[in-house]
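Input/output pair, single chain:
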Amino acid sequence: MIQLIGGEMPEYAEQLPPAGGPLLRHLAGRLPTGARVLLAGPHDPDLIAELAPGRAVTCLLRSRPDALAQDRRGVPGVRVLCGTLPKLTEIDRYDAVLALDGADRLCSPEGSQLDWLDTVRVLKRVLRPGGTLLLTVANELGVHRLVDPGSPTAPRTGDAWRPLGEFGAAPGRADRLAAALGAEGLPVTGLAAAWPLPQHPTLLVTPETLRYGPIDALGALATAAVAAAYRNRPVLSDPRRLAGAAVRRGLGAELAPGWLAVAHRAPAATPAVTLPPVLRAGPAAPSAQHVITELTSTPDGGWTRRTAGRSGDLPLPAGRLLEELLLTAAVRHELPVLRRLLTGWMVALPTASADNVLVDGGRFALLDPDAPECPDALIRFARTLTTGGYSHPWQAITELSRLTAILAGAAGLDEAPEPAGDQPLPDGRREHAEQLAALRRQLTDAEARAGFFEHELAKREAELGRARTQIAAFSGSLGYRAAKAALALARRTRHRLTDRTEESP
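Output:
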């Protein structure tokens, strides 16, 4: 049975997916047992099922069809409120408020429209003193917006009756988000940049870690996160390169798709949810759950990784991502470096993809030991070279099989590997434009060569024609016939003299 509080949308169902994913479920599961929790906005049913046992959960949804769907699931301990946030009259009621979907889907056209700051004030009002607020804020200048082919201010879903895009009132930087929440009596105890999408992060990194942590490994993790999210999706440019470059250049927090803040209503008590420096959800194997990994620093300046549900810590290897080193060497046409990297890769980790290998000098190590094996890793790198618009040393080779054979030879392999499956990549318009530009340059060069050869052929034909004319002119004259007869007589005379010389003793 749902409770209507006013401002509900009776016929509208949310078109965009709700907030969820393995990391958000993992964090929600850290809330203490017995807590009263408000889920403000659409959240994934799996997250609600993870949170419900041992806790009193209230779901606030503006869409009546979505509220009815949640009520039909019949999760024990879950109460459903349907209506808009300004109609929520409960005060000092909840130990924790989770708005992991952000503040954009809490109001409806049936009631008052709250901006971001007013929304935070309402959420604070329903928190008990010392209560926990988990709030996601999307970054209007995040990588996910920079590669979006659509205009951010154009309404593309039914809930965008008030499209704001980059003109919204939410804080535009992580430090401003912390300052805004602190000014409202909600001091922030944890803050993390979220990749690759604000409502479905698979990588959470604190701003301090992005500044002082293992930059190369963090860039590789951000690259892997966006690679999984943008498979076969149309984009303006490959987000993998943009994400990795943003982290390595010190702009990871500024260009992250969103931020997750953990705040407490003053007076702040012991944090119920803490954020490690790095929290990552690895790819799930078939019929298995996602692997949750934490990265923490050690007193000696190193970093270790700890997998949830497993004992013991593993040191995080140092070094740069192999794929980036290979692409850099290819763009610079550094063939000796390419051969060294390819040979070391195929000797040390032949079944690891290039975006999962860290290189430190002559040492090759796995970034994610839980990632599935990739027997056609060399083919995948060859495909990246051909589809990424890179100016590699073998521009004339357009066939993937031939380029793979060349790379295999450079790596010292007797045979090239066989394809083991498709490699879903982002469908980047910039990469398509680069490929078209490269093809145009090749076509222009081919046309220039064809024009040169046509000119040379015409010149040779003209010279041959003049020679034929001269020969014809000479062959028809009296002098030419006399000279020809004299030459024949001289030849016969020479032959007779030669014969006599041979007969004489």
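The first strand starts at residue 3 and ends at 6. The mean pLDDT is 87.
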